[in-house]
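Support request, priority: normal
Reporter: lab tech (M.K.)
Component: structure prediction queue

Hi team, I submitted a job for UvrABC system protein C from Flaviramulus multivorans yesterday, and the status page still shows it as pending. I've pasted the exact input below so you can check whether something in the sequence is tripping the parser. The sequence length should be 597 residues. Please let me know if I need to resubmit or if it's stuck on your end.
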Amino acid sequence: MDIPALEIQLRTLPNQPGVYQYFDKEGMIIYVGKAKNLKKRVSSYFTKTHDNGKTRVLVKKIASIKHIVVETETDALLLENNLIKKHKPRYNVLLKDDKSYPWICIKNERFPRVFSTRRVFKNGGDYFGPYTSMKTVSTLLSLIKGLYSLRTCNYDLAEEKIKAGKYKVCLEYHLGNCKGACEGFETEAEYNENIKAIKQILKGNFKDSLSQFKQQMRDYAENMQFEEAQKIKEKVEVLENYQAKSTIVNPKISNVDVFSIMSDESYGYVNFLQLSYGSIIRSHTLEIKKKLDETDKELLELAITEIRQRFHSKSKEIYVPFQVELGENIKVTIPQLGDKKHILDLSLRNAKYFRMERFKQMKIVDPDRHVNRIMAQMKADLRLSEEPRHIECFDNSNIQGTHPVAACVVFKNGKPSKKDYRHFNIKTVEGPDDFASMEEVVYRRYKRMLDEDQSLPQLIIIDGGKGQLSSALKSLDALNLRGKIAIIGIAKRLEELFYPNDPIPLYLDKKSETLKIIQQLRNEAHRFGIEHHRNKRSKSALNTELETISGVGEKTVVELLKHFKSAKRVANAKLDELEAVVGVSRAEKVYNYYHEK
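Reply from support: The job had stalled in the queue. We restarted it manually and it finished. Here are the results:
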């Protein structure tokens, strides 16, 4: 039964904050929304019964979904605003107007004014934000006003006009809120020092200002002005919780295209973010199938040309993670830090999530392709001569040398094959000798497989370092299997992979799928071995004391445990209760043993 494409998309959405876009069958955006958790929010549209008629119609028209992953819910709110303003989707009503989120502007003029605005102009002024709450803007402006004396008038304070005495101080001067720059009572250098400090506050670098506020608060408290101290305390709390930066909207980054790439053995995934006037207005990820062994550079150059043509991009500058050749008319920037690097990282995050979702979708729609990709990746990562379709992993278990056991777990096509798991009781080794135990179980396992003409694995993994690996190799030598089966050891601490006759271990990327499968194998072998070891130890602990009673055999022990459920209850049982289960003679022996004891 074919699974609808929309259902597959819903199953594979990430549990991350972001913005989702609904498209109809003509490919038009019909709705844009934000979410703290994309998977939960988008799924709710299709699992709930909606009272609102408009929402029911919207859900019926959804043909496909796109999403953009961001870092925070605030970023999602800002990005949603950008996309609605740009695309004006039919079912978005609230944010279609020309209002935008508020900014704080420091105007480009002599004795600059500091004020809030909802419009960003290319006039050389500095804009900070945007802010998702006007309350935050008001609090920040109030903080700045309380700390620094700034003018609020809109006079043109040119030097010659001030010298000519064109202006007179207003009420703000007499209230102490302004130092009278209009009459020359404050120098431009002094005023600009304050502006520099205000810019630091708005960027989030407010350590000096914070210490000044705290000192103010202490001074008020010492003078018994507790109400004033409380007001300052509230301002300090706002400052400490305030975060200025947003990757989503940044007026310093004008019209640019941002590209990043993730790739594996078979495919490349290129993410594209389009920024217009400092705002992200589009995101798209392209999947490219590799024909040969194309490099990331070649794939990215191909994708950039294709995507820019598809979306009719005229941007003169692009941000990429490494140098690409695109001709002389396009400026190529490779960001290293700051806001530009943040936006490139956001693009890379979206490429990674797209790749993960494609893998999940592949598992559902085409499991064979998923398995083939994993096997090809493992073969390359582990430097094997063939794909490890059949892997076996061994682990030893013993506590202080008691009840030594071993476990062998089997993975086929990257998944556990539990019917092929095997337990081993160590037979030939006395005491806690992990090396000799490993040698025994590997020999027994593959001797039997050879005798029964079973198919051998392509890869053996030994849970342990060089010592256990050497012991396992002795058994393969004895069976003449050396070189016919690849074998590696995995050390527990640093996830080091050891190969025969190679003193230098291999370290895989901590996030690689190959390492995750090896870790899953190792953990499963450990769990399976410990489970057998515990069962054996528990059985021994239960049976030992009862079986040491003279005249009490195994059959009697089983009957007693079957009835009383535990050895402790047998010990506490009354004589007549024991007689009812095992008869007078044996009951007396058990009863006398425990009560004499």
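The longest helix spans residues 513-547. The radius of gyration is 36 Å. Let us know if anything else looks off. Ticket resolved.
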